[in-house]
Hints:
Blueprint: H1 2-13, H2 18-44, E1 50-52, H3 58-63, E2 70-71, H4 82-95, E3 99-103, H5 108-115, E4 121-125, H6 138-143, H7 145-154
Parallel strand pairs: 1-2, 1-3, 3-4
Helix pairs in contact: 1-2
Amino acid sequence: GLFYHIAEIPSGLYLENQSNYAANAVEGKAEIDQVVRDIEAVLALIEETFIIFHVAYQYFETYFNLLAAGAISLSNARDPSPLRTAESRKTAQRAGADFVFSEAQFNAKLVDAVFAGAGARASTIDLLGASLLLGSGFYVALLKFATLIEACLQS
Length: 155
C-alpha cells in the first residue's frame, strides 16, 4: 500500500534507518485503519439528514457510503444576495435537512441567517484543519472530523 511505498523511498537512501521506516509504515497504516473503523462506527449511527457546503465531501461520502441531502455553496468572499439566501433556505427545507454543516471560513452569523426558518441547525466543521496542530498526528486528527458530525447530530 501507500504507506509501504512511501517508506521505500528514504529506505533506499538511508539504509541504516530502513527498519525505522518500515516500522513507521506499519504503525501509520494501523492508525489510519483504526480511524477508518471508528468513522464507520460513528457514521453507522447517523439517521439525520444533513446538507454540506462543499461538493468535495463527495469523496468522503463515497468512501464511507454516506449521502448528504444536498450541497450548498455560499461565497466566503461576499455575502449572498437575498435571492441566493432564499434559494439556499429552500434547498434545506426541500431536503428536510436536520443539519447544515458549514466550514470554518464562513461567517457563522451569516450561515445562521441564511438558514433561519429552514428547520435545520447549523454547525461548523473545520475540514482545512485550521484549528489543528501541525505534526505527525495532523492527518488522523483531520479525519476525525466525522466524530464532530456525530457530536453535532446527537446534540
